[in-house]
Amino acid sequence: MRSAGSVGPVGSVGSGGSAGSAGSAGSAGSAGRTSAAGRLAGLGRAELTLLLRNRTALFMALLMPVVLVLAMKSSLEQIDLGKVGMSIAEVSLTGGIGTVLILVVHLNLVSAYVARREELVLKRLRTGEVPDREILAGTALPAAGLALAQCALLIGGGIAVMEVTAPRRPELLIGGIALGLVLMTALAAVTATVTRTVESAQITTMPMFLISLAGSGIFIPLDVMPEKMASVCELLPMTGVMTLIRGGWLGGTDGGELATAALTALAWTALSVFAVQRWFRWEPRR
Q1: What is 212-238 written as a DSSP string?
Q2: pTM, to two decimals
Q3: Could you tell me if residue 16 is left (phi over 0), alpha (psi between -120 and 50 degrees) or otherwise beta?
Q4: pLDDT at 2 (0 to 100)
């Protein structure tokens, strides 16, 4: 439900200028009825400005995925990938896409949602015409756009430099990335619900990061795991997304496995959206 209390002008909140910048999107929207696309664009521009000013968040978004992929590439030499029909380059690149989704979208958005909540930006935006879903989506737009750009670079660079084959089913690859963006955004909002401060976001995002990295097939294909362990890992949030991404780029995945992966990812997305609607906090946790 929306906040019952009355609040002042949107731009009146000042936290190093960040809240005022984000709030300007709300004040522009309240000046007259605007389209959903216009409202989302305004929120996205404000959030992009804040992201560019935050050097730590920008470093995590731009460099950490590359560093992690390079680090994991050397570790993959210890795994026998021949029996699953994949090369180190193929696993590194598809795993890089999964890493981008987690680091650029999930980790960044948890901090962004918490920061805007604690600065009263979310509360003030809700007093205007912008629906809750647009507030959350608008905040996520820069991270999603940055993630898409990095995924495109990974795919293009893999084909041009690392001599990996072009995606065999591009529509499946694009669908997996899109589903991953929605899922990571929804899970970021859920994680923000239990995160008290921006600093504590480094702790609350760690379980999702470590579990996905170890068990969702990002860098370690489930086919090389023991059968019982693989069966459990198939139920993790990012596993379905990674199955779709890997199947779309490299092929070799049957229809039944793809359908199961899609249903698993959609189920986690629906559950996350329900949790956001039910428990997301718009008021500061003080």
Answers
A1: HHHHSSSSS-GGGS-HHHHHHHTTSHH
A2: 0.83
A3: left
A4: 53
